[in-house]
Amino acid sequence: MAYQSINPATGKQTESFKELTAAELESKLAKAEACYKTWKRTSYAERAVIIAKAAKLLREQADTFATTMTKEMGKRISEARGEVLFSADILDYYAEKAEGFLAPDTLDPKMGEAHMESSPIGVVFCVEPWNFPYYQLARVAGPHLMAGNTLVIKHAGCVPQCAIAFEKLLLDAGAPEGLYTNLVISHDQSNAVVDDVRIKGVALTGSVAAGRSIASRAGQALKPSSMELGGSDAFIVLEDADMDHAVKWAVWGRMYNCGQTCCAAKRFIIVDSVADEFLEKFTAALSALEAGDPIDEKTTLGPLSTEGALVQLLAQVNAAVKGGAKVVLGGKRIERAGSYMEPTILTDVKPGNPAFRDEFFGPVAMFFRVKDEAAAIALANDSDFGLGGSVFTKDVERGKRVASQIETGMMFINNISWSDAELPFGGIKDSGYGRELGDMGIQAFVNKKLVRYVKADAPL
Ligand code: NAP
User: Fold this and answer.
1) Structural domains present in the chain
2) How far is the CA of 394 from the centre of ligand 1 (A)?
3) Among 113, 234, 260, 299, which residue's CB has the most CB atoms within a 10 Å radius?
């Protein structure tokens, strides 16, 4: 099956790319391995020249990169531009900080002296999703290339032009051949890459099903892996929240990237005394969004990434309704060219309804009314996922106490500004394991080596 570039705002295919032959794949892996042998010996300063240059080029060509993304997966142009600039920030962050993050740590043993040092491990294989076509790549390229590894990347089948653009970016920035390699490959070929002896680590961001498949394969081969998977984050509004502030974040948290974000607000858990007010304001705000071409700066509602994503989401909504949920807003496809879905709010989603444990990867919000803070925490934790979550309250100390009781990898109080280069990103439970970004993000694929030393004539 070829990789296809289809504009989801029109349904028209613009490009198609054939998967690599076995010989082409072998050649690319060999080049990545050969490059590693020299790249691992380069200094941090030498690596930083290339990574910082890539950041500079991204900024200079932000509009071109953003337009490719918008036309390939439908992200609204202002969001696409923001993602490009943020990707540049991530590259710069690691260009500047990698050496400090990986500096030797002095230990204090009973005998002699010791330190931990960090060294690269080799070629790392990354499988990435379409929803943040450049940010996801920057999140692995910044840390792992600065650490001295080389990368081979399988990007999602629906964003081949973004994948090619990012590979070209690194080449334009001066990357040697084999440093960063885009692979247009099938799932079977991905399995073979995981098994390949030259691959020393595996990172995947994507669905739970993909995570299970690739993580088990990596486990079988005893290779380190990190898994950034799905989420169904709770958005808790307590009775003392600033309601207008909470509703603004609710709209952004559910609708940013047309709802196709792993750590988007997906389950709105509202304390009873303010639930009616929240639902009324949230419904009004979502109703005001208007579908349009995502390339138009004025558009407030873009399409989903693909027709397949829309069909799946509609099927999930139908199953939820069959299971007893009520649709208080939307629920249907928008009748126009392209793959557009009405902003949707579901209520009365009870345990036993498939929706209760599902991830809705699009503009569908589930609304839950709870008695009090304790009930909100219990419901938030009644999930197979554990990626992020948020709590809204005027009392930040109370927010921190609630956040501490939620079983996720990330919590946000009075905001859901999920990602910063400095902040480790990731989850627990079915949301995966490992962290990307921040100091932790660069430690995933390095050898932490202990070295202990005593004087040559020290007694035994
Ligand atoms: P997906 O189907 O799992 O695709 C993600 C990537 O995995 C794509 O490159 C895909 O390739 C590949 N893939 C899927 N199954 C595979 C298999 N069996 N073997 C090898 N590769 C495989 O995910 P999606 O539904 O498109 O993306 C959205 C999911 O990603 C959501 O669940 C979302 O929450 C999650 N996500 C998580 C994070 C995070 O940081 N935690 C960030 C973004 C997204 P093909 O396209 O060729 O199938």
Assistant:
1) 3-229+431-451 (3.40.605.10), 233-413 (3.40.309.10)
2) 37
3) 234
Using the atom order of ligand 1, give the atom closest to the CA of residue 361.
31
Which of the following is catalytic: 262, 263, 342, 373? 262
pLDDT of residue 459: 87
For 49, other C-beta atoms within 10 Å of its C-beta total 14
Q: Is 162 a catalytic residue?
A: no
Lookup result for tokens 């990574």: 51
pLDDT digits (tens, 9 = 90+) for 366-378: 999 999 999 999 9
CA-CA distance, 422 to 437, in Å (whole number)? 6
Q: Please name which of 25, 43, 39 lies closest in space to residue 149, comparing C-alpha atoms.
A: 39
**pTM, 2 dp:** 0.97
Q: What burial class does residue 212 get, using C-beta atoms within 10 Å of its C-beta: 0-12 exposed, 13-18 middle, 19+ buried? A: middle
| C-alpha 206 – ligand 1 centre gap (Å) | 3
What are the backbone dihedrals phi and psi of residue 34, each rounded to the nearest 5 degrees, phi first? -65, -40
Q: How distant is the alpha carbon of residue 263 from its chain centre?
A: 8
Nearest CA to ligand 1 atom 26: 129
Q: Is the pLDDT of residue 281 over 80?
A: yes
In the numeric block, the tokens 């879905």 are attached to 341
Residue 218 corresponds to which amino acid? A
Whether 1 has a pLDDT exceeding 70, the answer reads: no
Cα–Cα nearest to 345, from 354, 336, 332, 334: 332
Specify whether 335 is catalytic: no
* Whether 299 contacts 76, CB under 8 Å: yes
Task: Output phi, psi for 430, to 5 deg.
Answer: -70, -5
How far is the C-alpha of 8 from the C-alpha of 233, rounded, in Å? 26
pLDDT at residue 168 above 70?
A: yes
72, 128, 228, 436: the catalytic one is 228
